[in-house]
Fold each of these.
Amino acid sequence: MQITIKRIDEDFLMEASNDTGNTLLMDGSESIGGHHKGFRPMQMLLAAVGGCSAIDIISILKKQKQEIESFEVVVDGDSQKEDTYSVYRTVDIHFKIKGKVDLDKAQKAAQLSHDKYCSVSKAMEYSSQIQFRVSVNED
């Protein structure tokens, strides 16, 4: 796997592309001269852990013939400054599922993702306490 990152303005706006041609924009925070035109790298980490688990959970539930109508993930991270860098000490993930989905199956799928399958959460577990909850057909 290879990612290429190119600077596209005179400040911090960059475009990352993968080996299949997909792209995303990254930018620095406004406090250092960024312009809110892309995800900040630490935000991408939260998106990555939520997306990785979402793929796992959807895949497991599809194999169990659960009928997912919508799937949303809300990820909250509490970052803490350490010397010259920041780390997420806690990450809270809420999987919001609608459809003909058994709550117990969804919770088990989320637990499997967290404990066994999600490479991003496994990489983050050394510095972050990751908690999750699952809701099915709630508003």
Amino acid sequence: MLTTINVHGNGMALEVLRDVIGHGPNGYSQSQYKAIISYLNEVASFKDCWEKIWSKDKLRFGVEPSDLAVNYTMPILKKIRDGVLWELGAGTGRDSIFLSKYCNNVTSIEITKTAANDIKKQLERKGIKNVEILNDDVWSILKRQNNLKKGFVDVVHAHSFLHYTKPIMTGVLFSEIYGLLRTGGHFVFGVKGKGDHLFGKGEEIDKDVWVFEDGQRRKFYDEESISEVLNNAGFEVEVLNTEKEFFDDTVSEFVVGVARKG
């Protein structure tokens, strides 16, 4: 099932914000509230950037599941009977499709129409019935869901997505992920590490935040800095590793881990 909610354009931030949380910060600090407005104003350009990427090369990251899905998320799901999984920033669905074999239900969030439609076609071709696709930005979907119902997801999986948001917005997203998870639920993630080949290239606009020549902004983490964000959101860190992956004959470094809602 593909559900298109509301992928918005520039200048629509306040309208979307009021639709999702009403008037005023409503539980967010002033700095978080401003960060959400900034994030929503960036959504359209982020979406356009990735629409071009997926339209040009649907196999950019291959069809095999990520190491994060195989080595971290799948073993957790195998221990849970009829588990519920949410994937954030699903791309063309390689992890959602792989992990759907190990749980009862998958909700796959992907902002681009091109990638979301590709996931839908794969699901139809493979006869997979337990994956729902939500085509919108991650924060809006998480917040809307938490407004309706919290604490029912067993695992949230996010590979190579959260480093694209500004640090304060990443903290906001972590808090929403925490709310979505049931007690004892797990958050499995991979974010760019400081040993990545792109670290230090382009323009540094904030501490460890670099804008590359293609216009993409990334926040680079180490184990200490990502632990701080997780702890501030209430998570207990269970596993944290710095790992290397190879992409386009270059070294990509990720800080990967598993955090638990206590």
